[in-house]
Structures are given as C-alpha cells and as structure tokens.
C-alpha cells in the first residue's frame, strides 16, 4: 500500500475530515498544512492564488514560531534566575 492509501484508510476509520494533495495524494488534517505542503513540495504546479495563499500561510507559520521561541526563552530565563535565587536563599 502507498502512503496515500494509508492516509485515506486512516481518515475513513477515524471519521476526521482531511485535505488531500491533488499531486501526491497525501492527506492533511488542516487546509493550512496542505497549503504549506504544496508550496514546499509542488511549487511548479501552483496558481497565482495558491502561491499567495502559501506566502500568507508561511508568514503566519513564521509568526507562530517566533512567538513560541520568545515564550520558550522567557520560561528558560525565569527558570534559570528562579533556581539561582533559590540556591542563594538556601545556601546562604
């Protein structure tokens, strides 16, 4: 069985709606993921509207990743200084 066949079978079994790539047949649970997939894997077959949708999805993905990195860095800084102050408090 191919990967596309497994994805289609899994979709029918779980009842979850998926979005399928018309070029390779891969299924994705969200349309945004399908747009990103097609922009990365099949850029030569995209229309102008699909290219613009890919660019917008890519920008949104970048914003989400940047936000995650900033929040993760903030948590690490808080943990570092929290442990440092606890060490000073208990060791001192």
Would you kindly provide a written description of the structure presented here, covering whatever features stand out?
The chain is mainly alpha-helical and 92 residues long. The protein has one domain. The protein is 73% helix and 4% strand. The chain contains 3 helices and 2 strands. It has helices at residues 3-14, 31-41, 48-91; strands at 19-20, 27-28. A two-stranded antiparallel ribbon has the order 1-2. Helix 2 packs across helix 3. The longest helix is centred in the C-terminal third of the chain and has 44 residues, at 48-91. The N and C termini lie far apart (65 Å). Keywords: DNA-binding, Membrane, Transmembrane, Transmembrane helix. It comes from Halogeometricum borinquense.
What can be said about this structure in brief?
The chain crosses the membrane at residues 72-90. By secondary structure, the chain is mainly alpha-helical.
The helix tally amounts to 3
Beta content: under 5%
Biggest β-sheet: strands ordered side by side in the sheet: 1-2
| Global mean pLDDT | 87
Helix content: over 70%
**Dominant shape:** elongated
Query: How many E-type strands?
Result: 2
Task: Compile the SSE list and pairings.
Blueprint: H1 3-14, E1 19-20, E2 27-28, H2 31-41, H3 48-91
Antiparallel strand pairs: 1-2
Helix pairs in contact: 2-3
Main features:
92 residues, mainly alpha, two-stranded antiparallel ribbon, 2 strands, 73% helix, elongated, transmembrane
